[in-house]
C-alpha cells in the first residue's frame, strides 16, 4: 500500500518558496544557520530592530549562566534577516562560555557578513551579577551616521 505523504502547511509552503528552511517547520534545535529573504524596498532607509530579552550564555571563567537582552538594529540592503533563524542562532550560545564583549562583536560580525546590510548595531544589556551590570554596543557598516 503506498504511503500517504502529509501535505505541506501553507506557512511552510510559502517559506520554502523563499528558500527559508526553518520557518513553519515546528520543533527545532539550536543552529548556526542564518536565513534571509529579499528586501522589497532596498532603496529606502528602513530600520529593522530585533530584540531578544531571553539571551543566555555562560561565563567563560566560572561557567555560571549569564542572562541579558540582545538588540540588533540594522538598515537592510538586499536581504532581511529571518527572525526564527536568528532565534535558533542565539540559542547556540546557551552552552557557550564567552565574554559579553565578545558575544556582541561576534554577533555583529556574523550578521554583517551574512546580510551585508548598509549599517548594523548590536547591543547587549547583561543582567547584574556580582554587583555589576555590563552593557556592550558595537557598530559596523559604511554609513555610521544613523
How many domains? The number is 1
H/I helix tally: 3
The CATH architecture comes to 2-Layer Sandwich
- How many runs of DSSP E, i.e. beta strands? 6
Which fold name corresponds to the CATH topology?
GTP Cyclohydrolase I, domain 2
Question: Cα distance, first to last residue?
Answer: 62 Å
Order of helices and strands: HEEEEHHEE
Radius of gyration: 18 Å
Strand-residue fraction? Answer: 25-35%
At the fourth level of CATH, the homologous superfamily is GTP cyclohydrolase I, C-terminal domain/NADPH-dependent 7-cyano-7-deazaguanine reductase, N-terminal domain
Structural class, judged by helices and strands? alpha+beta
For the record, the CATH class is Alpha Beta
